[in-house]
Design goal:
Order of helices and strands: HHEEEHEEEEEHHEEHH
Structural class: alpha+beta
Number of helices: 7
Distance between the termini: 64 Å
Strand order of the largest sheet: 4-5-6-8-7
Helix content: 40-55%
Strand content: 25-35%
Length: 245
């Protein structure tokens, strides 16, 4: 019995500290969230007396929780029998939620650096008229206005997507991707044409009717470099690679 209690103590403390260290979350913030969630669970189960202050104590070693109500200067424990299981379940849910939030923050920070780049991805599912895409570590949302009308977006279709922006939406921050943005043409040329990537050839402007035609104005920034020839490539291989995307 004593051994099992020590094991539970160790498991909770180790799990909490490991998660906080790996995800960059402060243990204090996790514990405060756990306390608030446990009190909410108690409110749902037993209800709270009006104008009475309640306090939750959570053992950072074992994860066991106690609930107190404070009347005047007196603190009275009101933890119901068998509430430990509910508290443990609640603590687990809070920790998992904190992990998801931390992971999303890391992923958003990673893709914020990729705004303006093209990534490979796959159509994952449809959310109304929006398309949710798997773009590697994260998921991107392609709104209707960023889609090409002539393209067929079937499930599991593999495509290139332009990382357009990270926007605050009703569902929180989301990575916005595009297939229709004129900037996607520039990004593709930068990926396929070494002279554009190095800066020897500069794309001045792109006029695009997505899915129909695009016009690209280029100039040479380096003597002896043919800007049009560089972008077209031998037998049109480079411009063909851009069109295929």
């Amino acid at each position: 019995m004593r051994q099992s209690m020590l094991t539970a103590r160790t498991e909770f403390a180790v799990a909490l500290n490991q998660i906080c260290t790996e995800r960059g979350i402060s243990p204090e913030s996790v514990m405060e969230t756990i306390k608030a969630a446990i009190l909410a669970a108690y409110r749902k189960d037993k209800g709270l007396e009006e104008e009475i202050e309640y306090e939750v104590e959570v053992d950072s070693e074992s994860g066991s929780a106690k609930i107190f109500k404070i009347v005047g200067k007196k603190k009275e424990e009101v933890t119901p029998p068998g509430f430990g299981r509910i508290a443990a379940q609640t603590a687990k849910q809070v920790i998992l939620q904190k992990i998801r939030e931390a992971e999303k923050t890391v992923i958003l920070a990673e893709y914020e650096k990729k705004i303006g780049n093209v990534v490979n991805g796959m159509v994952l599912r449809f959310d109304g008229r929006d398309i949710v895409c798997d773009i590697g570590r994260g998921q991107g949302v392609m709104p209707l206005q960023e889609q090409i009308g002539r393209e067929n977006y079937g499930l599991n279709t593999r495509l290139c997507f332009y990382i357009l922006d990270i926007r605050e939406t009703v569902k929180g921050k989301q990575i916005i991707v595009s297939r229709a943005a004129p900037e996607m043409v520039s990004a593709l040329f930068k990926r396929e044409v070494p002279e554009v990537a190095s800066g020897a050839v500069e794309i001045k402007i792109v006029a695009r009717e997505a899915g129909v035609r695009s016009k690209v104005a280029v100039i040479s920034k380096q003597a002896g470099v043919d800007p049009v020839g560089s972008c077209v490539g031998q037998k049109g291989v480079r411009v063909g690679a851009v069109i295929d995307e």
